[in-house]
């Protein structure tokens, strides 16, 4: 099942702020493997298939370094189509001596790294959903070592040539100020379901029984402040609904819960979660 298309609500695009647009564009092309869809003096839209923007990087005026111990981005996660694709990019990272973290989550295998501004990136591939273990409404996840040799072996025979065209934005993991309050925004407001938890420090939410489209944690501290507008880091992200009707229903639920919903000049609908993370509601 494809968890990143209708009837599922999912994250389809992320915008981050960087200190040097040229440095970041080079990094995301040469290290991660994006293509530039279009670029201006202070902004670049990045794509995997040459048509669909997945990541936008923006250099604001008077930008400042990424603030620690705030809400905002923990990481955005790039989902590769196949395990062999993960093997090829792992080999690519190894050749460049890129510092990496890694984990076998039982539902997926993941690599972790930072961009030049400290924005967290996950690159992963999913295990077959038929092999995921569900206990009621909860999916079993773990933080186990990956089998790097087996992953590399999957990618042998073809060189790394950048992100495959079927790459999507798999999920987004956020620092939250209050876990329960922020989770209520995404569940009661936007219609996601909690499918996994890590004690009282992290929650994982999805639609359509995916392992997670959104992660939330309080690892920067309960009550962590929102970062300054000038700070490098997360600017916004898109929550994509399968239909206009579901988007309108979510908008009305947010208003009923007391959240401010804004109609921007271009007609787009934006809001902020209780931790100050800005998002757009799209179809």
From TrEMBL:
PANTHER family, per the entry: CATECHOL-2,3-DIOXYGENASE
CDD domains registered for this protein in UniProt: VOC_BsCatE_like_C, VOC_BsCatE_like_N
SUPFAM superfamilies: Glyoxalase/Bleomycin resistance protein/Dihydroxybiphenyl dioxygenase (SSF54593)
Protein name (database record): VOC family protein
InterPro entries: Glyas_Bleomycin-R_OHBP_Dase, Glyas_Fos-R_dOase_dom, VOC_core
Pfam families from the UniProt entry: Glyoxalase (PF00903)
Entry superkingdom: Bacteria
Lineage of origin: Bacteria, Bacillati, Bacillota, Bacilli, Bacillales
Domain VOC stretches: 10-126, 168-283
